[in-house]
Design brief:
The protein has 24 helices and no strands. The chain has 419 residues and is mainly α. Helix 13 packs antiparallel against helix 14 and helix 20 runs antiparallel to helix 21. It is elongated and about 95 Å long.
Length: 419
């Protein structure tokens, strides 16, 4: 019976081909043995040196891997694979600045190299070069239309840039290519939610969780979408499912508390607000929510102390100041609190915060009998609130056109009479 050829009986190219097959199959030790046999015969064999560098990186020895890959490039400076692999190793070490030109060298040597475009996109993204990253991801997809990772990263980039419809289109492609890729389903859900397609986002969230129910962001997004649809019970159940996945998440506890508070479940909400503040002491929003629950239970002193805890950390915290304003009992308290609100307004730049502070200021002025001043504060607060809600002229026109197409003139006339 014939025996398999021994390494000494094979040419260097045959040895390298066998080593590459073993390497691709994950047989790293056997592959390394053959690479070293090649180098024993030819110490300048750049591909074998580079392959040892890749193995070193794969086994967690990044510094040794980078050293070997640099040595390999000294023998073959224009090699596309070596430049790409060294760039990937440097990216793993967090050095995108050094990695990016290596991917460009790889693409100069081999223009049709989708993996180098993908890696180049990641390097650009790490440097905050969004336009260059998008260009690389799109080039990777032109060269390899079924490149799931490139499509996924492009979709996430478009989401981060606020281009929601494009992001959703891209993530649709991801889930078509890889229906069981849970992060792709989650990415699609994020994009759909960002585009205002909330019901579709809910369906995508559910698909993501069917594939992997440990994805905390998917639970959080599903709860947010359900809240947006007014399905508060469903949102509460969703967040309750998520809490065991991250029991030390103050954010989750607080979100669950807010939904329960909206449902009138004040005791349950209070427990979650208190848990959130215990987990992340010093975060003013959690202390403020503890105060809200205490106020709803009629415990004004406990509420006041909670709001003051928030203000001790963030003196201009709008939500805490507004809640304290609602509790002001007399003219002296109102005047003292109004001074604090004035200082908050002097430093607040966020429209939502300024609106809350102006509402609080109006409440206090009204309490003091300054009705003209109160009206001015309420008017300014409402103006800020209106400005925060953009009017979609095209969307409104489409809605009116749809109403005209759907309902007859006679129906509209009868409906107006009933109104």
């Amino acid at each position: 019976m014939s025996q398999p050829p021994q390494p000494t009986a094979l040419s260097a190219q045959q040895l390298f081909d066998n080593a590459q097959r073993l390497h691709a199959a994950g047989e790293l030790r056997q592959a390394e043995h053959l690479y070293r046999e090649i180098l024993r015969r030819d110490p300048s064999h750049a591909a074998a040196v580079g392959a040892l560098g890749v193995i070193a990186c794969q086994t967690g020895n990044l510094e040794a891997g980078v050293k070997l890959l640099r040595e390999a490039l000294a023998h073959a400076p224009g090699d596309a694979d070596l430049n790409n692999n060294l760039g990937m190793a440097l990216m793993s070490m967090g050095d995108a600045v050094a990695a990016r030109p290596l991917f460009e060298l790889a693409l100069t040597a081999r223009p049709r190299f989708p993996e180098a475009h993908f890696n180049g996109g990641n390097a650009c993204l790490a440097e905050g070069q969004h336009a260059a990253a998008e260009k690389h991801y799109r080039a990777a997809l032109r060269q390899r239309a079924d490149y799931v990772d490139a499509a996924n990263n492009l979709g996430n980039l478009l989401f981060d840039l606020g281009r929601m419809d494009e992001a959703a289109q891209c993530m649709h492609k991801v889930v078509q290519l890889a229906p069981r890729f849970a992060p792709g389903q989650l990415g699609l859900a994020r994009a759909l939610a960002g585009a205002g397609k909330t019901e579709q986002a809910v369906a995508a969230c559910r698909r993501a969780l069917e594939l992997d129910d440990t994805q905390l962001p998917a639970w959080e997004l599903l709860a947010m979408c359900l809240r947006r649809l007014g399905e508060l019970e469903g949102a509460a159940q969703t967040l309750a499912r998520a809490v065991p996945l991250a029991p030390q998440s103050a954010t989750l506890r607080d979100q669950l508390g807010l939904v329960q508070f909206s449902l009138g479940q004040v005791e349950e909400a209070a427990a979650n607000f208190e848990a959130a503040e215990a987990i992340a002491a010093g975060q003013p929003q959690y202390a403020t929510h503890v105060g809200m629950a205490a106020s709803a239970r009629g415990d004004r002193e406990r509420a006041r102390l909670a709001f003051e805890r928030a203000l001790a950390v963030a003196p201009g915290h709008a939500e805490a100041l507004r809640n304290l304003a609602e509790m002001a009992a007399d003219d002296a308290q109102a005047r003292a609190l109004e001074q604090r609100i004035d200082r908050g307004l002097a430093s607040a730049t966020d429209s939502a915060a300024r609106s809350q502070l102006l509402f609080a200021q109006g409440r206090l002025r009204d309490l003091r009998g300054d009705y003209t001043g109160a009206f001015a504060s309420f008017s300014a607060a409402n103006a800020l609130r209106r400005d925060a809600v953009p009017f979609d002229r095209a969307g409104q026109r489409q809605f009116i056109d749809a109403v005209i197409e759907t309902f007859s003139e006679d129906f509209m006339r009868r409906a107006s009479l009933h109104a």
